[in-house]
Please model this.
Amino acid sequence: MKNPGRIFLTGDTHGEHSIGKLSSKNFPKGKELTKKDYVIILGDFGLLWSHLRTRSETYWLKWLDDQPWTTLVVPGNHENYYLWDRLQEKEAFNDRVRIISHSVWGLNRGPCYRIANRKILAIGGAHSHDREYRELGKTLWLEEEITEKDIRIAVSYTESVNFQVDYVLTHCAPTKRARGAMDQHRAHLWTPDGSEELLQKFEDETALEYKRWYCGHYHTDFGPTYDGKFECLYNKIVELTDD
Model:
């Protein structure tokens, strides 16, 4: 059987601050890949940020383009949605993606994509817990939050596949998983927010079936959980192996 392509996942990169985790030193498997393989960043990409693209953003986007793989982005909360909403789209993975750069594409909220022969549900977005330190329209966008419309789109797509997917990729987590992702040292600081609650409602009301759910957002590597179905990523880079 022909290899359908490999998929790797990692957490937030926040532009130049953490994109180095994908260097050949930290990610030697990257040298084995081709443009038909994918590295998916689970939100807070950070290279679609400045209204006027900076020299650093230009450098790192070109760096990603020059890597052997194709980069896919699940949008987080720390993204410039003014720019995101104005990106051109193209057909890919049985749906549409946003073109960030030549081989850096954004995944929309709610579609069930067919990527490397896996059914992957993507629901980006999250709530910024540091919003009091941010400026609306410059470092904070109202569009960051998951909305009822996003969930309706996800319901429509997953209903068409009998609420069965291979993987769920989000930025934040459903409430029942989010507390664990905050780990024992920070869990007392956590209170559920609207985006997390909408994901929990979606999972509960659809009885969605999936092999594993991955998220970013919490700046920790947590899991796999005891049931083997949830993992939060930050520095780790994991490959989907369909085990």
